[in-house]
Amino acid sequence: MLPLTRDQKHLVDQILAFTTDHVNETGPAVFTVYGDAGTGKSVILAHLFNQLQTAARTQPNSPLTQTTNYFLVNHPEILKVYREIAGQAPHLLKKDFQRPTTLINQLAKGQTTADVLVIDEAHLLLSQSDHYNNFYGDNQLRSLLTAAKVIILVFDETQVLRMKSYWTEERLERLLMPYPHQHVRLTHQFRMQASDALVTWINDFTHGHVHHLPKDIGTHYDLRIFNDAEQMRQTIVAKNNQVGLSRIVSTSGYPSTLDGGKHYITEGHFHLPWDQYNYTSTPWAELPQTIDEVGSIYTCQGFDLNYVGLILGPPLTLSPQDQLEVHLDRYTDVEAFKRRADITDKQELIAVKKQLILNAVNVLMKRGVQGLYIYAHDAHLRQFLGAK
């Protein structure tokens, strides 16, 4: 685990105090950590959960002694990382880390109980039933609130990617209103070695406001706009050979079907397949062969890459008036837009769908620690951004 800063240690202590204050009550009590991608939410949770389980398993005088606690994340690739961490820590077990649906179904069958739940990427919790994934309730967080005494979760509404897990801060706060709760908001960017001006530019872009790139991108950050996707790929391969953990990723908008076959992204001389389903215990980005694949939000969300080469696909164009346009009919991730009964207004639905696409861009743009390379399918957008 990465070491904590002084402020992060203080926050872990604050959450632990909140937890011990409420763990012997009937519950539930909720502590929410808000923060954009790269603000250190996951490292805080990892340290917090390690301390929770150490107290539960080794400290007989602690209020947490012999409590049953779980760490949940609704993302199979991130789950692999946490289970790898568990193998290196003396008081963590791999079974402590679960997908939410798995735990919800175990709780419903009386196979386990839960005192404290720590939820990473809570914006990925299902907010409607999903029979394909064996969740038959109407909201995963609501189901977990009925079972636990304390819930600690991290949340970023700009990383919501699918209608079936559609959340906003307002919806979350409305759900939590009846319960004792506290929250903090993290703002400092830890992942990207980029300037505040560039992070602001990314945030503006992913809310539909396109400006020219700032002059100050950060002394130790490499930002390039490419006019050729194959040239960008070759540059990423070179970076991967130099420092590792460098990958090509893309937004949706290219052929993609979950049928077990390979589907390719083609842009001029660039021709690579989408990421394949990863059956190993190693995260996608750490597999050497994935340098010859294109990552998606489903393999890259929550991960640090050293350099990321991002393809902005056909759904994103720039109008002659330099306004960003989002074309829903060009989005090929059919899973993203499953119908929701609670959003009936047509204009609201269109706005939500467009924001989900921009959220995916936000997730992908913030993967790179040391650099971001961009190729846009739309020629006008490429030129506006300064492709050479």
Helix count, per DSSP? 11
CATH topology of the largest domain: the name is Rossmann fold
The CATH architecture category of the largest domain equals: 3-Layer(aba) Sandwich
Please report the first level of CATH classification, the CATH class of the largest domain.
Alpha Beta
Distance between the termini: 40 Å
Tell me the Rg in angstroms: 21 Å
Shape: globular
* Main sheet characteristics: 6 strands, parallel
Mean pLDDT across all amino acids = 94
Please provide the ordered H/E string of secondary-structure elements: HEHEHEHEHEHEHEHEEEEHEEEHEH
Give the strand tally.
Answer: 15
Structural class assignment: alpha/beta
Question: How many domains, in number, for the residues?
Answer: 2
State the helical fraction. Answer: 25-40%
Uncertain segments? none
Portion in beta strands:
15-25%
Widest β-sheet, arrangement of strands: 3-2-4-5-1-6
Domain AAA+ ATPase: 27-196
Protein name: DUF2075 domain-containing protein
